[in-house]
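Standup notes
- DV: blocked on the single-chain target, sequence here:
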Amino acid sequence: MSRVRAAPPATLFLPLDASSSSPLYRQLYSGVRESILSGRLAPGAGLPSSRALAEELGVSRNTVILAFDQLVAEGYIEGSPRSGTRVAAVPERTPRVKASPGPGPSARGKVIANSRLPALSRGESPPVPFRAGVPALDQFPYRLWSRLAARRWRRQPMLDYGEPGGYGALREAIAEYVRLARGARCLTEQVIVTSGSQQGVDLAARVLLDPGDAVWMEDPGYTGARTALQVAGARIVPVPVDGEGLVVQEGERMAAQARMAYVSPSHQFPLGVTMSAARRLALLRWASRAGAWILEDDYDSEFRYDARPLAALQGMDEDGRVIYVGTFSKTLFPALRLGYLIVPVELVDAFRAARAVSDRQSPTMDQAILADFLGGGHFARHVRRMRRLYSERQEVLVDAVRRHLGDRLEVTPSAAGMHLLAWLEPGVDDATVSAGAATLGLEAAPLSRYGLVRPDRGGLLLGWAGYSPEAIREGVLKLGEALR
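- DV (later): unblocked, structure below
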């Protein structure tokens, strides 16, 4: 009488994660169970012995035994000393119920899902040229920061909840800094510490706007701000930008009674122009007449190369119409995630409450370390050093582009900021060139990405601050390949 041969043990590909909070035996149990339910392990299929599987997966035999015991108890596998362990002939399969479509996201959720937010770092080291807004991370004073952090943890660790408006010493240091360096009118109580400028824009939109309110938005302009305003229910009015900044007269023609205007007057993103004094005064006069708010994103204001940094628009405001947004992501490092708002005194309570509802507070110890960094004069010295370095790196970029790509790209040195706009030849699609550059390991964002109205001429945003001269020159040569 011939015997029926048992099926050979199946090979199991079950990746286990020792760093996971789930125990290894539970991960093994779930992996085998899923293989059975999905049909990858058929009824009657043999399984490796507990000893063999333990060796194959690099775990203890007890781990395998615990998983197998659970699978036997639930009827997924069966075993005997003579025939070994195998998938049950009729396993207790969990019925697969086809899920009916849910109601889907809200209208606000759809705006978020469909938004074109700024490209974020994927953790490359060093970052990818020519991503805009990346500071010189290799030049950050790590040792000094580490000493300040260690001193804080030794002497005064703060582990309880903090104030939603921010750590007191940091708010004092910020208020002093913006008064001296940015010409702002600011009391300590007016400072609201945020998790970067993005949260600052989001808070301002939620506190000051109602659904349907019209908001002037620089066009082209910062997509992160535009999305935050749209999520708040605002109706975006794309106001053009020329060599003097946002065209106030055009904004009044399009929506004279708008509730807010978003501007980046010190260094407009992405065009890089600086708003003239005449335009600033015209914008303030309009806000006063219309009873509107001005959301001033003081983007890259610290880095000006042809003269001293210009005073903030907020410092010219005598009617309390300007909400000022600042950040340390560009001046120090993006992972710090600390920024701030300066709000009129009568709005302080509302903004503090909104901050508490949003995420309560920023990490108190990080705020304390930053307060020490500002209070000790280290921040001012670091900014001065970076200003010199960035000026040199911009010269390298402009020289390399003019030398190798002068017939294909038109560049003019930027008077401020950490990126410049390189204009393409008329008729060349900037999105196509940007996609080609990405295949070569570059990030040169197309100008068309940032506008609701398509520009007459394509351009590429080229950041230089975070890259060595060697990386800049090599990147320009690769960019030439993309253009060809």
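- Follow-up: The first strand starts at residue 77 and ends at 80.
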